[in-house]
Amino acid sequence: MSEDSIISLQNVNKWFGDFHVLKDVDLQVKKKERIVVCGPSGSGKSTMIRCINRLEEHQEGTIIVDGIELTGNLKNIDSVRKEVGMVFQQFNLFPHLSVKENITLAPIWVKKMPKAEAEELAMQQLEIVKIPEQADKYPGQLSGGQQQRVAIARSLAMKPNIMLFDEPTSALDPEMIKEVLDVMIDLAEGGMTMIVVTHEMGFAKTVADRMVFMDEGRIVEQAVPEKFFNNPESDRTKLFLSQILNH
Amino acid sequence: MNEITESRKPPVATTGILGWLRMNLFSNWINSLVSLFVLYILIQFIPWILNWTIFAADFKYNFNGVEITDRTMCSRVLDPENGGACWAIIYVRFYQFMYGFYPRDEVWRVNLSYIMLAVAVVPLLFDKFPFRKHFLKFTYVFPVIAFFLLNGGLGLEPVSTNKWGGLLVTLVLGCTGIALAFPLGIVLALGRRSNLPVISMMCTLFIEFIRGVPLITLLFFGMVMLPLFLPEGVNMDGLARVLVAVTLFQSAYMAEVIRGGLQAIPQGQYEAARSIGLSYWQMNMKIVLPQAIRISIPSIVNTSIGLFKDTTLVIIVGLLDLLGIGRGALADTTWLGLAYEVYFFVSLVFFIFTFAMSRYSLYLEKKLKTGINMGAD
After folding, report:
1. pLDDT in tens, B102-112
2. CB proximity B369 to A under 8 Å
3. What pTM did the predictor assign?
4. Strand ranges (DSSP E) for B11-151?
5. Residue B115 within a domain
6. Do A109 and B286 touch (CB under 8 A)?
7. Which residue of A has its CA nearest to B293?
8. Chain pair A-B, CB pairs under 8 angstroms
């Protein structure tokens, strides 16, 4: 493993029952690096990033996040989760809490921040995702794009060093995708370490430092975007790119 | 131009009382027939019941204006054709119905407890109640105050629980059972869904065992067998033993109801809670349970109503609840044969409480539906 990696996966293997989802996955991510992961559905991309904050357990290999190895040790898992923010395809906002409460919950209960301070922090995060006026609404009253931006603000409120995005725009109507991607581009430009699973190739070309292509549980190819899109090495990458770019 | 878009009034035949009648009661000939039949029954029945329970009834005095002291003085015994209900039996024994055999000098303690129960419960039920936060502090200490008030101690004359009876016993069993079973049920429900197999198995065993046994069996268990498990010399109060049985019974049902609510919470809620760093208990207390309990409210109220009525079974183990006092009154030779009045009164008291619970549940459902939109996904 290289010394300056903030995330390091070595020989990671995982099974769901008998099904081998991750096969010898190796991935090194440097601080402030932006990685876009793509691949056909069922290729293990979501499972891989979910292993990074231990929403899934890996069975073989080592995962080290910000110097902390992910094992059964619950303390380690808790400290990793404080470092790593995650945004889900289905937003997963808490429907019984207002937007502001969604964001202040973790700072108040996990970081023991005073309520007033947490609310100020929440408003700052809502400014970043450009919907401060929605603070007192409930998630059910917002559009999909607004909900996803609240979800991003909720993660950012914990001041993570790393952000994971699991198909953040896949559940959105087309006209709302841009507002979410814009927020993510701002984040990337601000120097956040990001791993993004997405099929938005336009976003990948603008933001990614490196593309990672996965198929059948393996990382098939890693390259800078220019090389990845114009001159991919593997036939499977070529096939995948032709399918998603030419429609 | 405007005439086209202007909204018109609906046709007269579909509005107003006549329109409503036409639409709902006489929309076709079968509907009309049923409506007329029901109307006929109501016309026959309602005046009769009003007459029997109120207009022709004796309350304290019979139709001769004499104060009733035994059954032979009831109007309906003297004149079976015209006499209505003889409520004198309730009037004379009202004290017993409300307090059992609680000493008269100390009865202010029961009355005070009843009032404090209302003060403790009403702010708990309505979240818009003024100064609710401060009232809720009282709600938490109320059980302790009520215990010492009713039971004695701290300078108050002790009143043994075998003197308690009537509504007092019904309310103590119902309220304590529901209040204790709720947290216990939550713990059991979480336990049953735990990832730790030993905890999950123990909770499942407990729930299935209690649910598989009739409440009467548990009451006998509390009365007869519980003392065998206690260390020698420790004598547990009869009412307390029954309370243990009732609480265990109710907590098993509550656990299953809450588990139903837990199952409706999407996996994504757990993942989101974990990903922002909440611990297991924080996740459950702040995210999962508030949503799960909201979903289960109708069933929670339903089992609570069930328990409230099931408390009448304690008569089997010798406690005199409201129904027990009623049966005692009927066994009194001075009042023989006034079963209608006694059962009517007991039913009415139970109905008031259970109907209030059921209305409250409807109110909550409506409030939660119109208030927060839960459809995030």
Report:
1. 888 888 988 99
2. no
3. 0.82
4. none
5. no
6. yes
7. A96
8. 80
